[in-house]
Write a structure and sequence with these properties.
35% strand; mainly beta; 294 residues; Immunoglobulin-like; 4-stranded antiparallel beta sheet; disordered N terminus; binds calcium ion; 4 helices
Length: 294
């Protein structure tokens, strides 16, 4: 009897260790566990039990606070700051915490500050270079002729530029004058030869009768049908300007009209062609080159 009693007394704690007593100590449904979109009950002893529910939006098992069928890591940026630090925010499109990243402001720029403490990358196309003073991509590599550029551009120093609005050199090379004037008579009294001068005007309402008001005039070459000048001037050419070129015969007291030619405006064809050769009835030939000022 003594032994059996001892056995019985010692058996109670022993049984409790291996049987019902241990089960009763674990509190069921103490926690949840999430795995592949399903949450399970977990008892206080850490054992995974029955399925609690299917998580419609999945669940974030990595985050203890939201392991129970909560698809959202965050609802406000404050939650993310608490979790990770001050430079985190809640991306409300996916409800996930993300680290603040500065968006570089580099659209249209190939150098210079990007607004985020860095510099904008040189992402100019192949064959283009980044102009470090303007931070604009420029086709510095390419053109050798004006035709290499776009319809409104010309080639200057191997780069394409807008033609209108910039300066050009006008060079008057030669002018040829007919033997007789509009009346079939000699240009000067006594059968004298003309003394031609070429003048350039801007935006005239009528053909000028003298060099007054001209942008530029050549010198006068005395007594010749074939004047050679090789005289140049520089001026800006705009698409909105009309140019008038007038040839005069310089007489003793006034200017005798020979012939004129109008450009309204000086065309892109002419600029790309580098000038013009005018051939008229009395100004039988006028050769003018027009080249961009570099
Ligand atoms: Ca005359
Ligand atoms: Ca003369």
């Amino acid at each position: 009897m003594r032994y059996s009693l001892i056995l019985l007394l010692s058996c109670v704690p022993f049984l409790s260790l291996i049987g019902g007593c241990a089960v009763e100590d674990c509190e069921p449904e103490a926690d949840t566990y999430c795995d592949e979109g399903v949450s399970y009950w977990v008892d206080s002893c850490g054992d995974i039990g029955l399925k609690k529910e299917d998580c419609l939006y999945g669940c974030l098992a990595l985050l203890d606070d939201h392991s129970d069928c909560d698809p959202w890591e965050c609802r406000t940026s404050n939650e993310c700051m608490d979790l990770y630090g001050g430079d985190w925010f809640c991306d409300l499109t996916v409800h996930i915490c993300k680290k603040e990243t500065c968006a570089p402001q580099c659209t249209g720029w190939c150098c210079g500050a990007d607004g985020c403490g860095g510099t904008c990358p040189d992402d100019c196309p192949v064959g283009w270079d980044c102009n470090m003073s303007t931070c604009q991509c420029e086709d510095l590599s390419g053109c050798t002729t004006h035709d290499d550029c776009g319809p409104n551009d010309i080639c200057v120093n191997a780069g394409c530029e807008a033609a209108y609005g910039r300066e050009f050199w006008f060079t008057v090379e030669t002018a040829d004058v007919s033997q007789y004037d509009q009346n079939g008579a000699a240009w000067d009294v006594g059968g004298g030869m003309p003394d031609p001068r070429i003048c350039f005007y801007l935006n005239q309402s009528s053909v000028p009768i003298s060099p007054t008001g001209a942008e530029f005039c050549t010198s006068t070459v005395d007594d010749t049908f074939t004047a050679t000048y090789n005289e140049e001037f520089r001026d800006s050419i705009f698409a909105s300007d009309a140019w008038l070129v007038v040839a005069f015969d310089e007489d003793l007291t006034d200017w005798e009209y020979i012939e004129h030619y109008e450009f309204d405006p000086i065309s892109m064809d002419l600029l790309k062609g580098g000038g013009f050769v005018f051939e008229g009835d009395y100004l039988t030939q006028l050769v003018v080159t027009i080249d961009p000022v570099e």
